[in-house]
Every structure is written in C-alpha cells, then in structure tokens.
Design brief:
Length: about 260
C-alpha cells in the first residue's frame, strides 16, 4: 500500500513578490516554501502511514532546487521522494503539468489500497486544477476539498467542504484526494528525520524516464502542450493608510461629508 503525495515548491508570497519586466514572476530572486495545502496532504499521508504502515512517497515537479523541499518532506516522515525535472517540461500550464505528474505516478504504480494526496491548490497559481486533472488522467475516483478522512476497509469516508456546509463521501481506493488546511495540523520535521533525510532515496525522473508513457508527447507537455499561459503577473497596489476615529459621532461626520449617509 502506498500514499503518494504531490507537493510543490512555491514563492513565499508573505514577502515582496518580484516580477520581471515581461510580467512573469522572478522566482530566482524570491524565497521559496512548500505549498501550505500540500503540507496538509503530506500530514494526511503520514497519518495513514501510522495507521496502516503504508509507504509514503513525496512527488514534485520542478527544478533541481526543489530537492531541499523534498528532503524536508522526508524529514517530516516520508519514506522516499521523486523529483520530476527536465527542460522539456518547462513552461507547462496546469494541463501539461498534470500530464507529466500523472505519467510519473503511472511509473511509480497505483494499486488497490493506494491513495494519491494533493493540496487543494498552490498559492502561486490558485487554480485548484492540477489535482483533479491528475485524477482524470489516471482514471481514479476523486474527492476534492477534503476536511476529514476515515478508513472503511478498502474505502475512505471523506468529509468534503462545501460553501455552506459539508458532505460525506465514500470513495473506493485507489483514489485521489485534494486536501484543505482544515484537515489537520502539519507536523514539524523531527530531529532524527533531519539527520536521516539525506540517507533516504531521491529519484530523479526526467523526460527520458517518462517518454514511453502515452501521456508524454511533445504536443502535450511544456509550452507547446500548454493551451493557457500567464499574460502578466503583478503586485496589487497597497491600500492607503486607515483613519482612526474617536467615537461614532466623528465617524458619522466623516461619512456625512462624503455623502455616504
């Protein structure tokens, strides 16, 4: 039994967002973190490992600098990691990215009892598309916006968040779940995990390793295989400084002067 966790290294948007003159993000000059929702997905996989003894595999697509993030996943408790990296994959949108990650998961193998965990969405794109697209391409049942998980034999009972409440969904494994932050509280890296994270395997999957998969074709990956592209990225203008008022009478006077009341 395996728990495969898709994680992404993203710019730390809590600081200044750097944008190149052409309107794209200058990722090289920005600090990076593990996507927050993906940490909830990793925690869900680790909790499944504690109850079933399954193997936890962290998977990420990105440049070789993402190795440090994957080592952190191992330090948190993952058994091994896979980095999908190659120049042929550069410029991929959500459609092309899901093609590539699905091919990598195919290579790892998905069997009965396995679960693929993804974060709800990444903070750099906010599309919430990659997880569901991976499920479709792997022909797996999926539950999105998962806020609770219970085991039921070879199935999982998931608490799915809606806009006005929750719904309970029973899904047969293998399946894919996209997790939200309300699902759990991600654990920290352990001291033994930090010492041992470089002793555990990190596999690199490049274009040569995946090219035989039917999903990997020159017109379905990279820029050529991306039907969408980012026109421009920019930092929203900061709001002006607020005005402190002493009492309701002063507030009413300000609103009256602006003809709002």
């Amino acid at each position: 039994m395996k728990a495969i966790v898709c994680v992404k290294q993203v710019p730390d948007t809590s600081g200044k967002v750097a944008v190149k003159p052409d309107g794209t993000l200058d990722r090289a000059s920005m600090a990076t973190i593990t996507n927050p929702d993906d940490l909830s997905a990793l925690e869900a996989a680790l909790e499944l490992k504690e109850s079933t003894g399954c193997e936890v595999i962290a998977v990420s697509m990105g440049p070789f600098t993402a190795e440090g993030m994957l080592r952190e996943c191992i330090a948190r408790g993952a058994d091994r990691a896979v980095l999908i990296s190659g120049r042929e994959f550069g410029g991929s949108d959500t459609f092309a990215t899901s093609q590539i990650i699905a091919a990598a998961i195919n290579k790892i193998g998905v069997e009965k009892g396995d679960v693929v965990f993804c974060g709800r969405q990444a903070i750099d794109g906010d599309t919430a598309q990659v997880g569901p697209q991976i499920a479709e391409k792997l022909h797996l049942p999926q539950v999105s916006y998962v806020a609770g998980i219970e085991q039921d034999g070879d199935a999982l009972i998931c608490k799915r968040m809606l806009e006005d409440g929750y719904m309970m969904v029973r899904v047969q494994t293998p399946c894919l779940l996209t997790c939200i932050k309300e699902l759990n509280t991600p654990r920290y890296m352990s001291v033994p995990g930090i010492f041992e994270c470089y002793d555990k395997p990190l596999e690199i999957m490049d274009y040569e390793a995946l090219k035989d998969d039917p999903l990997i074709e020159t017109d379905t990956i990279g820029l050529k295989g991306s039907p969408t592209n980012v026109f421009k990225s920019f930092t929203p203008p900061q709001k002006g400084a607020g005005t402190m008022v002493k009492d309701a009478a002063e507030l009413a006077g300000i609103l009256d002067s602006k003809h709002l009341i």
